[in-house]
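QA checklist item 7 of 12: single-chain prediction sanity check.
[x] sequence parsed
[x] length recorded as 279
[x] structure emitted
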Amino acid sequence: MASITLFQGKFITVSEFRCTALPGEKPYAELHRCHSISYVRKGSFGYASRGRSHELVTGSMLIGFPDTEFVCSHDHVCGDECLSFFFASEFVEEVGARREPWQIGAAPPLGELMVFGELAQAAACGRSDITLDEIGAMLASRFVEMVSGRSRKTAAPTARDRRRAVEAALWIDANSPDNIALEDAARGAGVSPFHFLRLFSGVLGVTPHQYLVRARLRHAARLLACDDRDITAIAYDTGFNDLSNFVRTFHRAAGVPPLKFRQASRGMRKIFQERLALH
């Protein structure tokens, strides 16, 4: 089994797994060390735990419970891939789940869960401005709702929640060139990361990281229009640690790459006119 850790935080860790088992290879016992949800993004495999057996296919979810032994088999297809979210016990308590939802072993391909799996895949490939830990929190919350059959009641934001969200947004904007994690912003607001994600998104309509990326884009657009420093310097000065990611993200937002945006801001209006004509 080949694995790559894509994100590691205090409460959520995300890893990519690619199975290297060969046809006819004897399965062996493994142990879940924490709560987890693994999205099967390719292939299929068998999963046996707690006296129950499951066949997982693309779109299924493997659900891990701490200190539970399991065995994976590959009787039909070899070469499966999973995107796995591992949750600290403190986070699971915050989600408000009983033991039962996390002991089901596996969930079939459900549209209500698969959409988060695909969103996570987009984030892992750099095609989304929602972070993997934000997606993990959303996935865990939705999973518990689906399995328990009880939707979490969303109360109207209180005045205190609104103030916290606004103050957090101002802090994120002021510190946008820095590496800001969900846990950092939550700590500043004085709440848990899970609660912070819910209150921030509920009040402002975007996740904290989406707001962070858009703050960086706004600062970058201003510098491209008003500053003569080169594009690489602007990318790094505004918090984008990778030039190609900056170009891709800016192009997706503006419809044109940074260089053409700069040219358009300095009189070459034909660039935007051509862009609008395409639509």
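[x] summary fact logged: The chain has a mean pLDDT of 89.
[ ] second reviewer sign-off
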